[in-house]
Amino acid sequence: MRIAINAHNHTPPSHTATTLGSGRNIVVGVAGGIAAYKACHLIRDFKEAGDIVRVVPTEAALQFVGKATFEALSGNPVSTTVFDAVDEVRHVHVGQQADLIVVAPATADLIARVTHGRADDLLAATILMATCPVVLAPAMHTEMWENKATQANVDILRSRGIVVLEPAHGRLTGTDTGPGRLPEPSQIATLARAAMEGVLFDRSLEGKKILITAGGTREALDPVRFLGNHSSGRQGFALAEIAAHRGAEVTIIAGSIDNDLHTPSGARIINVSSAREMYTEVHRHVSESDLVIMAAAVADFRPAHQAESKMKKGSEAQQALERIELIENPDILRAITTARATGEIPSDLVVVGFAAETGDENTSALEFARIKLTKKDADFLMCNEVGEGKVFGQPKNSGFLLSRTGEITEIETADKHVVAGRILDVVTQKIR
């Protein structure tokens, strides 16, 4: 049985989103916090993608960033009050016409006002009018974020379908450090776009522990050289980010990843280099997990010998460069399913593998993935057809999610965060 999943299946029924890159109407709300300056980067991100951006700040936000800055970046007039452009009924139309509303930063005060349905300024009124996805990116001191009043407000908003992102952990105003930092603008933009494409942020994984491997492994030849692959870690990090925003406790075991990847809010990262290091860390954490997703591109082989110093041309070591003897690395995915079958780890652990396949003249990438699924004894296998300009390092992904019970879910080309949401929609149904 084959089930096709695409970006339109999950669009909220009350609102029809426009096509990506076709001039979507996006409202960027800005509340009065020191992180208001980061909204400038968010506005530029949306504008460079071809979106129509209207900035709606609060009066307090203008104490941090001036009105002229927001107008210059968005190309649209800026107002804070419901009494401007009354003849246009602006306090109604801005929210009605929006394809997305994203507020960054969302302060404790703004969250409280939205929770209670206030409409005492243009931003609150716009949110109250909205039928499109609404995404709030909190930023405040740790004590404010953890206060029972704020947490109760956040729970209420989430129960109403408003997306309240988890704040980042890091340096706050002054010398304080802790949860409450605004996520990076690029993270907010990516997650907001995912929400607009119907990805769920429903807290359905609250209390669950998820272990995810990401990136490529590096197998050293000498202190300078290594054998590796083109994996960027983007799909693994996207899975971690969506899972964390659904309430899961996420641990990422990361190999070599792109430098511009940001730590998903609330996730823990363990950095490794080689396949054997990844094997050790997976073995250490797998028994405490409800779901394991092996999204890393793990090297199948490693050099049999690692030189202690750099091997140079014209030296005795040159022969070692010309002929590299390889030995097999441990099969991490198969080790997990074997341990599950023998009772070494919980039998209800859900295991998801990834297969980067190319196919050949006789066998398709999908058929190779079917064989691998049986061989690895995983519950699911995500098959990606890789090649020049495909998957590795790219912002988008697609493929087939195979189930051990025979279902094949086709996941159409989309941003990797959207793909992550589609994968988690399917595989987490098996978590008890």
UniProtKB/TrEMBL annotation:
Record EC number: 4.1.1.36, 6.3.2.5
Region annotated Phosphopantothenate--cysteine ligase, chain positions: 210-432
Top-rank taxon, per record: Bacteria
MF terms (GO), sorted A to Z: phosphopantothenate--cysteine ligase activity; phosphopantothenoylcysteine decarboxylase activity
Keyword Ligase attached: yes
InterPro entries registered for this protein in UniProt: CoaB-like_sf (IPR035929), CoaBC (IPR005252), DNA/pantothenate-metab_flavo_C (IPR007085), Flavin_trans-like (IPR036551), Flavoprotein (IPR003382)
Cofactor: Mg(2+); FMN
Pfam families: DFP, Flavoprotein
Family: In the N-terminal section; belongs to the HFCD (homo-oligomeric flavin containing Cys decarboxylase) superfamily. In the C-terminal section; belongs to the PPC synthetase family.
Protein name: Coenzyme A biosynthesis bifunctional protein CoaBC
Organism: Corynebacterium felinum
